[in-house]
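Form 7-S
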Amino acid sequence: MSYSLEQMQQASRLFFDLLRKKVIPLDDPAATECLQDAGAYDALQYIAKEGGCRVMNSGHRLHLLVNPLGSVFATNFTQLKNKYSRIERKAHLHTINIIILVFLAEMDQDETHFKAGQDSMSYLQIADQVSSLFQTWLQLDQDGRFSQQWRLDIQAMHKIWSSLYMQTKSQEESDLLTRGSNSRIGLIHEGMKLLEEEKLVFISETEKRIFPREELYERMRYLYHDVDRYQELKALIGRTLAGKDGEPHAAH
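Output:
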């Protein structure tokens, strides 16, 4: 399909706005202009595809999704796997993924009652839940079958997590929160910063809390909910934290 010069200009303006902002509301002038012209919107999708990206329309906002491979615009989030590609650091990557999933599982429950600026999790809440997960999963993985069924290296992740220093409640309240590489809070912060860079959460440094943005719920609704692996692990995390995972469950 051929596009006019005006359509390509409209599409290019919006595409580079999306590169800078990650997410743009539909009432943004650049988005409105492009969406009113089917040809310009098709041109936007074409430009995105050529750059290794795609544009997701949630009905409220446009999200720029970058393919993890083959994109010149890959971000720290999409290149996370490459950053920890060395064999001895794969467990570090997997542990960060579990941390992110713990936060998403807590937020992804009843979005109809989502209250912007009120729903949140503290770093210590996440740390407590991750600790509970690994303790339970390690008990279920004595023969290695739990790890095999869920494609999770429980032993390696637990080893990393248990080796990290954990701040106490008093240290957090007295603003002595250490976010070093040898800290559990530091590892959580590393994972949450990835979500913040994608404009999906807001991190309150003073409160040491992570607040989901509406953009996160759109990403979950229109992208994550269609990913079987996400749904499986979210359900596993929910069952484990609710104390209902007395036996290994085979992944579907």
